[in-house]
Give the backbone structure.
Amino acid sequence: MLERLAHYANDVIMVFSLDGRLVEANDRFFELYGYSHDVISRLSLTDLRSLARTATIAEDLGRVTVQGRFTFETEHRRHDGGVFPVEVNSRLVHLDGETYVVSVVRDISEIKAAMGRIQNMTALLQTAAAVHHHLLHANHEQDVFSGVCRASTQFGLKMAWIGVIEAESVRPVSWAGEGSAYLDGLVIRLDPRDCHAWGPTGTAIRFGKPVISADFQNDPATAPWHERGQLFGWRASAAFPLFRHGQVCGALTLYAGESGMFGPAEQTLLEDLAANVSFKLDQLDVRAQNAELQASLQESLQKLVDVNIELERFSEIYSHDLQEPVRNVVSFTQFLERRLTGKFDAETEGLLRIIVDAARRIRQLNFDLLDFSRSRHSQTALIPTDTGAALRDACDTLQASLEQSGGQVHCGPLPEVLGNPAELRQVFLALLSNAIKFATPGRRPQIEVAAEAEGEAWHFTVRDNGIGIESAYLDKVFTVFFRLHARPDYPGSGVGLAISRKIIERHGGTIWLESAPGQGVVAHFRLYAAPPLPSLQGNMPETRALPPDPLVVASGGRTPV
């Protein structure tokens, strides 16, 4: 029974004499090798081995005879001449006084093919890893091209080259590996009427898709390059388009010494590799554009700084040098007004008053321009400053205006901040002056000043009940010399808020307005709190006392409540 079952085994079972003649074989032998049963007596190991392996027949039989068994790999030949790899398990057997060699032969073509694919994929994975490592450190286009080609040939590929589009052809820009002479005089056209346009590289560029030639030497598409490819032993090729900003700019072409090297899995891996090269090219372009923009921006900023410096110098020099002639104009126009009043008709005296008023406005504008110029580049020494004292000083300065308008300034407890006393007084002076100036007709100005802690800063508010500002102008009013109203109705030069913003920003804070027509204005600004003073006992921070209750700081026309 066992003898009959052996004929149906999946492996070939053969019996040889010690001189290598085939004595018997199972049915699988005839299926695999293609021989008929009537020729078995005329076959020997020489007929079954590939021509390249016949020289080791005697050695292999000798090992079996000496060792009693021997397992090895070799190549066998079919009746039609086809060669395939096999694993042979041979054993010495004694039957009926005779000695034979029984060999179990297994076709390992699929195993070898799988191992080859694994080796190829491993090599390509190593190639991809080397390329990606290089891309991480490449800083220039040519560095990308040369590094990709070098890395692509480190693990088994014969050659790699990159070509870029120039006019209607492809120009090689980098290459590595065996056979770089292949590129000497190479012509790849992009014109579809040219036969040189239909190779793997040209086709990949024209259609923007990978092109694989599994059998380079027998592929009609590679016919113009068969002779060159034969010279360098290329058996397969693969071309992958490269992109820049979504447009094909060239191709990466690879060559292998084994047919069928670039299967579906290998193609997917190499497509990802080419996509990463394209991404790197885009990244380099973006970096170059950013560098150009930054250089242009830096140049523009420097020009702007230079212009601002010149403008500041001009405004300061202009304001300073203009003081004396303006002072003379004002003095002499006032002198003429005093001397000639009552000696002219009403129209002439009106014109004279206009001249005197204009001279005074010129003098005030000159003073304001000089103050604004100084506020832009003056150095501020910041110290712990009592904002309540700064507010009281401002109210004292405006006492006459408060009395004339009947206005009141109310304030709650105000803290110490890190600031400059004189400049903070100037901020309060500008905000209070605007609240008085832009009061609602027929309504006495009511101004409330308060402060609230916000983390390491204090948030101040100065609220009035005046005519208000339209939302479209809440930021514009901080522009120097910007005016919302006609001068006869609301005098002033429009620099107070501009100077206030410069002061607050120089203190590290911010200032802004909230308002609506007819609802008054709320001026907000933030200043950093003063650092705590060290205590003499235990180095505990000193607590600064604030006024315990809200009070009326200044009032005009009424008793404070």
About this structure: The chain has 14 helices and 18 strands. The two ends are 126 Å apart (CA to CA).
